[in-house]
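User: What would this chain look like folded?
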Amino acid sequence: MQVPAIAAILDDFLPAGVADTIASAIVFVGAFVVVYLVSKVVVTPILDRSLARRDLDAHARKPIQKVASILMLFVAVAVAFGMAGFGNFLTALATIGAAATLGIAFAMQDVLKNFVAGVFIFTDKPFRIGDWIEWDNSSGVVEDISLRVTRVRTFDNELLTVPNSNLTDDVIKNPVAKDQLRLKFLFGISYDDDIDQATDIIMEEAEAHEDILADPAPSVRLTELGDSSVGLQSRIWIDDPSRADWVRTRGEFVTAVKQRFDEEDITIPYPNRTIGGGLEMAGMDSPVTADD
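Assistant: Here's the prediction, encoded as structure tokens.
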């Protein structure tokens, strides 16, 4: 595909200068499409097979695939640039880059900040795709990590697109980073109830639940003397945690303890207040009644 040959064909229909410009554009587009498609068809499968042989997970594969796509795009543009007769691509790129550096620097501050943050996320691995994370009063499951943003699916099925810098500048809580997760729940009982009996019930229900681990063992401690209740803090552990497991296991455990408390006449009190006093009205010789 040569520019002069195409220009010669177009000369019969267009002015010479216009024919050369259109011929260069045709060659550029054609060369770009051919080189890019060939590289995608040839390079991408080879790269995917190479990554699969190394047993890399999605967290590690995605950035490598993204970088490879950018390189293929760069090569396609460089080859098309040369074949279209636009001169040396690298020289032109350097000239354009030098002229636009100041403007790009101001325009790309946030992009570069998020890009660097994305690199830190990939290297430090505070979380991975599929992890449940919490940050800045938000939470959800990580669906995708790119070099600029992280996409998180909330538990209301909303998709959050979070700039990477927000996740590196803030404190990130990753409850599923480890193989085991401890759950806590505070049971309040009446001051008249037997603390040892209530503790035994909580421990028995924890030990009876199939998803609560025996090692580390569950525990119960008296941690609070409230205005209307005695607080017994229960601590249990679950294996291979996810948010669904966390909510389900804790709910089943608390329900079982509540049912046992009801059977054993152990009261879970609620706050109540008694308001007393009187109403005095100046200038009245007798109390005001409803009949008045």
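Helices lie at 3-10, 16-53, 58-83, 89-107, 109-124, 164-169, 195-208, 243-263. If you want, I can go into more detail on any region.
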